[in-house]
Amino acid sequence: MSVPSVLHYDLLVYILEPYHDDYSLLSRCALVNWEFNRAASKLLYFRVVLSPPFRPVLNLRDPGFISAGSNLPSALLPRNAPYVIALEVSGYISSRPPPRNTISETILSAVKAFTNLAEVKYTPVTFHEDLFTEPLKVLKVAPSLRSLTVNGSCMDEKKARILVQIGGLDKLTLKDPTRALLQLLPDWLRHLSSSLTGLHLLDNCGSVTPGVLKSFLPHVKQNLRTFTIGLSYSLTDQDVFVFLGEIRELKHVQLRYYWQLKPPHHQPPLPKLRTFIVNHPRMYAKDEVLKVCKWIRRAIASSSIETLRIAGDIDEDETISTFSHDSLVDHLVEKQKSTLRVLDIRTSYVGARGLMKLLTNCTLLEEIYICGGKDTLTIFSDYCKNTPHIHTALFDIHNVKRNMYRVTQEEACEIFVTCPSLRRLTVNGKTWEVGIPSCIYGF
Asked: What percentage of the chain has pLDDT greater than the value 70?
C-alpha cells in the first residue's frame, strides 16, 4: 500500500531536524528529490542571515552586494520565501548612502517577500543612517511578527518614531537603548501590554534611570515572563529588586551585577522564577566573590530555581579567579536542591567540598558546568551516581599546569561507564560524546 506523500514530508522534516544548522548537508539533501527538497528547504531557509565580515578598506565599487556566505539571494526566490521565519541583518554593512548602496532596497524586498516572518534582528555594527528606515515601515504591517531585536541602527529620533508603531510583539530586545527610544518606550509598552511577555534591555543601559524603569511597570506587571537589563550605573540594586518584585509572573531574569556601597534591603518576592542569569565583572579578591555570592543568594531566596547561570567577564588570555564560590553552593544545596536542573557557573571556582555536597544533594541535576581543582574529575566519578539524570558535564581544571593535565580517551570512557546517563563530557576544552551505544567520540 502506498504511503501519502505528505507523510514522507513530515517524516523527512523530523529526520533532518537535528541537522538544522548543517547547511552543507541540507543543501545536498535538497537535491535528492522534491520531497527532500521541501523538507530541507524548510530548515535551510528557516533563518536568513546577512552578516558581512569586517573589511579594513572601503570598496567604493561595492554597490551593496550580498556576502557569499548569505542565504538571502536564494531565499528571495518565490518558492523559498514562504519558508523564512527569521531574518537577521548584522555584521559590517557598508555605510555608503543610496543610490550607490542598494542593500537597503534588498532588505526592503526581503521583508516584503517573507510573508511568514516571525522574528527580525537588526543589529549591524556599521551601517548607513537610513538603512532600516523603509524596512521598519513594512514591519508595522507584518502580520506574523512576534520577536524584534534592534540596536542603535534603529534608535535615532526619526526611526524610533517608526519603531514604536510596530505592534503584536511577544518579545522585544533593545541593545544599547538610546534616550530617544526610551522616551517613547512607555507608550510602546502600553501598546504591547496585551501581547508582550519578554523585554530585554541589553549591554549599555546607562540611560535607564529609576524613573524610566518605574514608567515601564504599569504596562508589564501583568503579562511579563522574561526580563533582562544590562549595565546601568543610574540604577541601584534596590531599584531593580523593587521593580522585579512587582512582576509576580516572572520566570526568567537576567541581570548585570556591579559592586555597590549600599546593599539592597529589599528581597524580591519571585515565587515563579525558574531561570536566573547573572553577568558580572572580573573578580580580583575573595571579598568580591563573597559579595556577588551573597547578592545572588538574596535575589533567588524566595524562588525555586531550575536553571542558574553565572558568567564573568573573562578574556581568552585571562585565567579564572580561583576564589571559591562554595558559599553559593551551600545555598543551592540548602534551598534549591529539589528543583535545580542546570548549573552553569563555568567562570566560577567550586572547591572539592562544594562539589561533593552539590552532587550528593542536588539529585535532579541534568547539566553542570564548573571550574574546579585537580580532583574534580575524581569527585565527579565517585559521586555522579547520586545524579541519575545528568547528561552534560563541563569542567575547567585550574590550580594545575595545563600541559601536565591530560584526560585520555580511556579515562573519558571510564567516566561514561561510571555515569551511564552522561552523554557529553568536556574537560579543558576537549569534548567527548556518546553516539551509538558503546561508541564515544572525542573532538
From this structure: 92
Cα separation, 299 vs 237, whole angstroms: 10
Residues 111, 105: Cα–Cα separation, whole Å: 10
> What is the per-residue pLDDT across 107-160, written as a single tens digit (0 to 9) for each?
999 999 999 999 999 999 999 999 999 999 999 999 999 999 999 999 999 999
Residue 70 φ/ψ region, left for φ over 0, alpha for ψ in the -120 to 50 degree band, beta for the rest: beta
How many residues can be counted in the chain? Answer: 443
Nearest CA among 143, 119, 144 for reference residue 49:
119
Q: Residue holding cell 522616551?
A: 183
Q: Residues 348-372: pLDDT tens digits? A: 999 999 999 999 999 999 999 999 9
3-state secondary structure of 286: helix
Give the single-character DSSP code of 234. Answer: T
Q: How far is CA 274 from CA 71, 331, 351, in A?
A: 37, 16, 25
pLDDT greater than 70 at residue 299: yes
Among the listed residues 36, 45, 35, the one whose alpha carbon sits nearest the alpha carbon of residue 114: 45
Nearest to 263 by CA among 283, 229, 290: 290
Rounded to an integer, what distance in angstroms lies between the CA atom of residue 102 and that of residue 81?
Answer: 20
Residue 318 — very low, low, confident or very high, per pLDDT cuts 50/70/90? Answer: low
DSSP structure string for 120-152: EEEEEEE--TTTTHHHHHHHTT-TT--EEEE-G
What one-character-per-residue DSSP string does 53-69 give?
Answer: PP-SS--TT---PPPTT
143 burial via Cβ count (<10 Å: 0-12, 13-18, 19+): exposed
**Global confidence as pTM:** 0.89
User: Among 189, 227, 203, 201, which residue's Cα sits nearest to residue 149?
Assistant: 201
Question: For residues 183 and 212, what is the distance between their CA atoms, to the nearest angstrom?
Answer: 8
